[in-house]
């Protein structure tokens, strides 16, 4: 029997993480998330991470370690979690579909580097995005940038897949968008069960892509088989 919402609420955080839950399509953010400047955030994270390292028993006076808290703080704010800030959202540009191209457009093998929000370990894989034009087309590199934007935050793969599709649907003015992500989760590969072979595949299919034949065509482009 599956767990009910009440049952899940009574589980400890470690168990909840292992159940791979996510609470909403939007990344959970506080209302005051951007009241603090990036510089202040980095300063505070540097202090807190130094405390973590100290608690672990590491010698922060060692030449190899003393710069680590600052490096981690910069990496968190400016790099791996840079997608939390909406000001870093890709500046989308679309163009009139002057060629009247009406077939499916697929961008394959977009690199995904993200972070599991349950254990803060890497998620590494590939995203495949497709759409049918509704009069406009988007620059190819913009699809890569959209995937990268949503990847650069603590994530759950299911949420990220949906976010990419919703972003493109809104921007292109069409429901005919799909995304498949195939990624390895180091929270599975390097801890817990330590299964280094497994990967996770998620898909979100909108509009025409809900049709079995269209979905199959998309998956054929990716050399994947439907469930």
From the structure above, extract its key features:
227 residues, alpha+beta, GTP Cyclohydrolase I, Chain A, domain 1, GTP Cyclohydrolase I, domain 2, 2 domains, five-stranded mixed β-sheet, 37% helix
What can you see in these coordinates?
The structure is a single chain. This protein is an alpha+beta fold. The chain folds into 2 domains: 5-87, Orthogonal Bundle (GTP Cyclohydrolase I, Chain A, domain 1), CATH 1.10.286; 93-221, GTP Cyclohydrolase I, domain 2 (2-Layer Sandwich). It has 8 helices and 7 strands; from the N terminus they run ααααββββαβαβαβα. The strands form 2 sheets. The chain has a 5-stranded mixed sheet with strand order 5-2-3-6-7, sandwiched between helices. Strands 1-4 form a two-stranded antiparallel ribbon. The two termini are 23 Å apart.
């Amino acid at each position: 029997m599956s767990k009910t919402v009440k049952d899940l609420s009574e589980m400890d955080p470690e168990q909840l993480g292992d159940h791979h839950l996510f609470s909403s399509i939007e990344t959970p953010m506080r209302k005051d998330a951007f009241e603090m400047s990036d510089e202040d955030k980095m300063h505070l994270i540097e202090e807190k991470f130094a405390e973590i390292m100290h608690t672990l028993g590491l010698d922060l006076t060692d030449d190899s370690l003393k710069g680590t808290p600052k490096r981690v703080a910069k990496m968190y704010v400016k790099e791996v979690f840079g997608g939390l800030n909406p000001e870093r959202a890709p500046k989308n540009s679309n163009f009139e579909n002057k060629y009247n191209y009406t077939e499916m457009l697929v961008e394959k093998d977009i690199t995904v580097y993200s972070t599991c929000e349950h254990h803060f370990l890497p998620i590494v894989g590939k995203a495949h995005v497709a759409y049918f034009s509704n009069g406009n087309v988007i620059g190819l590199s913009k699809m890569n940038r959209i995937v990268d934007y949503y990847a650069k935050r603590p994530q759950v793969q299911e949420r990220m897949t949906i976010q990419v599709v919703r972003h493109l649907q809104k921007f292109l003015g069409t429901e005919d968008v799909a995304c498949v992500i195939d990624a390895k989760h180091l929270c599975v590969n390097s801890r817990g069960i330590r299964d280094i072979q497994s990967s996770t595949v998620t898909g979100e299919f909108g509009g025409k892509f809900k049709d079995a034949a269209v979905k199959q065509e998309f998956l054929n482009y990716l050399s994947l088989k439907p469930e």
